[in-house]
Write a structure and sequence with these properties.
The chain has 215 residues and is an all-beta fold. It folds into two domains: 36 residues, no CATH class; 163 residues, no CATH class. It contains one helix and 13 strands. The radius of gyration is 20 Å and the shape is globular. The protein starts with a strand and ends with a strand.
């Protein structure tokens, strides 16, 4: 037996015609959810889902230790008002060269906004993944976090032999744990690995543009 809450629910104030979405509870007060779409489809359909990538950029050599203030790759939020970039997934992979023994990917978010910077040559911040308008975001390289002492979070690590293994790397769902504030907020990503033989790495970032009230 289940109890029902009155009313309809719909994400982003949209639901298909002639459908009803009731909230129900089981005997243990667990909410019963019936999901009609894949998890990210609604964000994409509403023009909120975007990806930033190194694109055709040649790639950047990894750092041999966790950095202090400079990030290999930086994604900036150029929206105003309350529109934040909510990061859902990050990835890194080898573009060329011989990788060192193992690779890690660390992330930080700046504690303050920065002056606007442009997209680095050959990188891309793609239009909405369902088509539509471009994200108000830029991806650049080797930027200094404006407030020193940023904490770096290890989000992915991979044990590997020193080898030419183009395309090898990490893909990790960060599930919205990193939020880039509007008005010039920045998230930095850095690859950490032994030197290898001229390895060059790139990244991609899946994110959603969502209006949020940050504390």
């Amino acid at each position: 037996m289940s109890d029902k809450f009155d009313g309809n629910t719909s994400l982003m104030a949209y639901r298909s015609n002639n459908t009803r979405s009731d909230l129900r509870q089981d005997a243990y007060a667990n909410a019963l959810v019936s999901q009609g779409l894949p998890p990210l489809a609604d964000l994409a359909a509403n023009g909120k889902l975007h990806v930033a990538s190194g694109g055709s950029h040649a790639g950047i050599a990894p750092e041999t230790a966790v950095p202090t203030t400079v990030a290999n790759w930086c994604l900036q939020n150029n929206n105003t008002g309350s529109t934040c970039l909510v990061v859902l997934r990050v990835a890194n992979w080898l573009v060329s060269g011989t990788a060192g023994l193992g690779i890690g990917l660390v992330i930080t978010t700046d504690q303050a906004v920065q002056a606007a910077f442009a997209n680095v040559t050959l990188s891309t911040v793609k239009n909405c993944l369902a088509g539509g308008s471009a994200a108000l975001a830029n991806l650049n390289v080797n930027k200094t976090m404006s407030t020193g002492g940023s904490s770096w979070d290890m989000v992915a690590a991979r044990s590997q032999l020193a080898a030419v293994e183009v395309g090898a790397g990490n893909v990790v769902d960060v599930q919205g744990a990193y939020i880039i504030q509007p008005g010039g907020g920045v998230m930095g990503l850095t690859n950490v690995s032994p030197a290898g033989s001229t390895p060059l790495w790139t990244v991609s970032i899946l994110f959603a543009e969502i209006d949020l009230n940050l504390a």
